[in-house]
Amino acid sequence: MKKDKKVGVFVIKDDEKLFKEEKKIVNFFKKRLKKEKYNLVFFEEINLNSLSLKDEIYSKCIDVDVMFIFGDTSVNKRDTNIEQIEPLLTQRINSFEYIYSSIALDLIDSEALFLRTLAGKIDDTFIFCFPSNYKVFKFFVKAMLFPELDKLEKS
Hints:
By secondary structure, the chain is of the alpha/beta class. The protein contains 5 helices and 6 strands, in the order βαβαβαβαββα.
C-alpha cells in the first residue's frame, strides 16, 4: 500500500471516556501515521454501547483503504466489538491473531491470554482490531505493521 492510501481510525470508548492505556495508544498511533505520511481520512470515537458500530464501520469502508479499530476487545460480557465486526469480513487474516498473540506473550507474559484481535478485509478495505495494551501495540506497529502495510494492495 502506497503512503497515499487512505486510513480510518475508530476508537471504542467506554462510557464517554478513553482510559489511560487507550489514550497512549491513540497518541502514539496518530504521531506514527503522520510520521509515515499516511492520509488520515477520519478519526472517530464511538461509545462502547453504540448499537450502530457495525453500520458505522461498514459505511466508512468505502472511504478508506485500511481501517484500524482500537479498544474493548477483551472477554468482558459487554465487549462485543469482535463479534460485531467478524460477520462483516469477506476475508480473514488468521495469521495476524497468532502473530500478535505470540508477541504479546513474549512482552507481557500470561496477561496476553485474554487479548483478542481480528484482521481481515471488508470488500476491498483492510480491517485491523487491536486490544488496549500499549506495550504490545507499540512494539507490533514498529516491528511489523508499518513495514508490512506498504505491501497491502486493494484488489
